[in-house]
Amino acid sequence: MATYFMTRVSCRRIAALLLAALALISSRATSASGPPPPPPPPPPAVTAVVYAGHLIDGVSNSVRSNVTIVIEGDRIREVRDGRASVPGAEVVDLSEFTVLPGLIDCHTHVTMQIGRDQLLNSLIHRNADLALTASVYARRTLLAGFTTIRDLGSSGFVDISLRDAINSGTISGPRMFAATRLIGIIGGHGDTGGIREDLLPDPDYRSGIITGPEDGARAVRYAVKYGADVIKIAATGGVLSLADSGSGQQLTLAEMKAIVDAAHLLDRKVAAHAHGAAGIKDALRAGVSSIEHGSYLDDEAISLFKQHGAYLVPTIIAGKTVENAAKIPGFFPPAIQAKAATIGPLIQNAFARAYKGGVKIAFGTDAGVYPHGQNAKEFEYMVEAGMPPMEAILAATRSAADLLDQSANVGSVQRGRYADLIAVRGDPVTDIKLLQNVSFVMKAGRIYKRDGKPVLH
Ligand SMILES: [Zn+2]
Prior knowledge:
Blueprint: H1 2-30, E1 48-55, E2 64-72, E3 75-81, E4 90-101, E5 103-108, H2 118-124, H3 127-143, E6 146-151, H4 158-167, E7 175-178, H5 213-225, E8 231-234, H6 253-265, E9 270-274, H7 277-286, E10 290-293, H8 299-308, E11 311-313, H9 316-325, H10 334-343, H11 346-356, E12 360-361, H12 377-384, H13 389-395, H14 398-403, E13 421-425, E14 440-443, E15 446-450, E16 453-454
Parallel strand pairs: 1-4, 5-6, 6-7, 8-9, 9-10, 10-11, 11-12
Antiparallel strand pairs: 1-2, 2-3, 4-13, 13-14, 14-15, 15-16
Zinc ion (ZN) binds next to loops.
């Protein structure tokens, strides 16, 4: 009762104050001299300075030493040589560490985690279940040093809700660029196979299942309407789908062209899942921006990559993971087991061949096929396949940012970019495995991990 009374009183007081303020504003607005000019904005405050013992800046190929990164709010204001002090700013001393831009994974599924009984789980788990586990996986990904992800395929728009919850600060996770549903054919990678036909409704463009170019355009517009930042297509079959060959082409060239055209009109890029060479090549001819996996790529595909300026997103770790899982009896149903054992081992060699052939590489892992948070193991596999460590790092910073059209915001430590920084002890250029053990994570000026321990928000 007392609380109710006090609330009434304070409401009245606030209302009276508001009326007085409005009266003041209207009297000023109607006075002959006009409204006074707005006061100049206060000078922006430097919020933090980071002392980096060494810096890999995501721009150059060399490692800088003894650098100060000046941070203003969520962005980098300045990168200076030496140790500069700024009064009033929080000091983050990483002088014992190598600092890098926050890493970017161009191929994740943060709303999924592949395991046994995949088909059964897809029938049991509600979108709310997916969202709750996704919030854990997103945080794990961020704490592993990945401050930006391109999430390539989710159901029920869980990815969009997750992205928005992260952007609003409700939960901790990487900044996300999300694809919503994968677009593919009836019975193909992305359709749910292996279920009695009378138990599930026939899917349509709203579930990403299309027939014909017009339907492809419809699926793109529908995905963008509900929040897609990027479009993902299945140019070929997939390892983890039940009812296809895994590598055979699925979408026609005409369908892929229509999808790419519709996406470009809406300012979205297209990423193509593709294993077999025919599907890889038609996807490149259709104008996709990246090929995911690329397992059976050949010389003609390599020249098409270069001709179109498209990236390969390798996902070697996913290939290794399914190859190993195929050796565990009963882990996959027989149809998937056979594909996993055949296609999995090809991916690392495909990457090596593409890299040597001069194809642009953007870092991506297919997180969700392997446990979330182990994304940085991909670096080790890239280096093992012949890519120098610095180039592997640039694939996850400069090149990944370029593929995402986000070079002005992420992927480098320079003026104007988000203050997305990670740090490791030692020199990752001589030991790339160090990236699997990130000590410090900052995203948009906020620290999420310090001294190897998560910081609670
Ligand atoms: Zn994938």
